[in-house]
Write a structure and sequence with these properties.
13 helices, hydrolase, 8-stranded mixed β-sheet, Alpha/beta hydrolase, alpha/beta
């Protein structure tokens, strides 16, 4: 590993084992527990600069997943492939053990990595995930809450539906507008929801809908969650679950994961939605910072 990979806060290119180029960057500093952040989607790009900035004493490694953002638009797309790509990021930066922070789909990815490679994971921060039961158990409640939230502002639902029906016929500007309308429902503060969603879409890299659909179908296939409960019960990695109390994805969906894990802490942030660090940054910083200090202490005593 060269010196810039160890200390430089700049863009880097990670080469996977099948020679796909991934964008990655390192921020933060200090001797704190290194953290790799896994963004949501699938098919989106890194939107976790804000939570990484809340942990200034923590070496934070962010990346765009395969096919997304500044990374090469190249499949194949699957959970297993994403786990292998995450390991390529870890190896690129020369990290022996890391804590993983995953958001939404990224929480699933981080959990999958921890289950496959527990010896390489010091801790897992599971943010705004949906648990380990079949998606059919929670998705109808989420869909109902989404449409209810979308309809709170006059004309918003009608415009979202119009853009959705255009599908591949949307222009780039319309694609961005469609995403902003959809993401705005994910914030508890409805007065600032559009502002927050605009920030998420800036800069705009375009959604990889092929990646989203392919991994989404994999996650929904029959038996996709088979054996997860037993594997989680055997996981000897400390886990912090962070939820926004007003996330439109029902928080009871995460009870399945919490109940299965042997070493778990859960924090619920009041007045926050799907991106809880945006609406309760201090609560997020406090919960995650305390967890990281605990993980670091465990490492020191090994």
């Amino acid at each position: 590993m060269d010196e810039t990979a160890a200390t430089g806060d700049r863009d880097e290119t990670v080469l996977t084992d099948d020679e796909v180029r991934l964008w990655a960057t390192r921020t933060g500093g200090g001797a704190g527990e290194p953290v790799i952040l896994c963004h949501g989607g699938p098919g989106l790009w890194d939107t976790l600069e804000e939570p990484a900035a809340l942990l200034p004493d923590t070496p934070a490694y962010r990346w765009d997943q395969r096919g997304s953002g500044r990374s090469q638009r190249s499949g194949p797309y699957s959970t297993d492939r994403s786990v292998a790509d995450l390991d390529a990021v870890r190896r690129h930066f020369g990290l022996e053990r890391v804590t993983l922070l995953g958001h939404s789909w990224g929480a699933r990815l981080a959990l999958a990595y921890a289950l496959d490679h527990p010896a390489l994971v010091s801790g897992l921060i599971y943010v705004s995930g949906t648990g380990i039961d079949d998606d059919s158990t929670w998705h109808p409640a989420y869909k109902e809450a989404f449409h209810r939230g979308l309809g709170e502002r006059r004309g918003r639902r009608e415009r979202w539906e119009e853009l959705r029906e255009r599908g591949d016929g949307r222009t780039e500007a319309e694609d961005r507008e469609y995403a902003i309308l959809q993401w705005s429902v994910d914030f508890a503060d409805r007065d600032r929801a559009r502002e927050h969603a605009e920030a998420m879409a800036t800069p705009w890299f375009g959604v990889n809908y092929t990646c989203n659909a392919t991994i989404g179908a994999e996650l929904r296939r029959p038996g996709a969650t088979h054996g997860l409960r037993e594997r989680c019960a055997a996981l000897r990695v400390p886990v912090l679950i962070v939820d926004g109390e007003d996330d439109i994805r029902p928080r009871w969906s995460v009870d399945s994961l919490e109940g299965a894990l042997p070493d778990v802490t859960r924090t619920m942030l009041a007045g926050a939605g799907h991106m809880p660090w945006t609406e309760d940054p201090e609560g997020f910083r406090t919960a995650v910072g305390a967890f990281l200090r605990g993980v670091s202490h465990r490492g020191d005593s090994r």
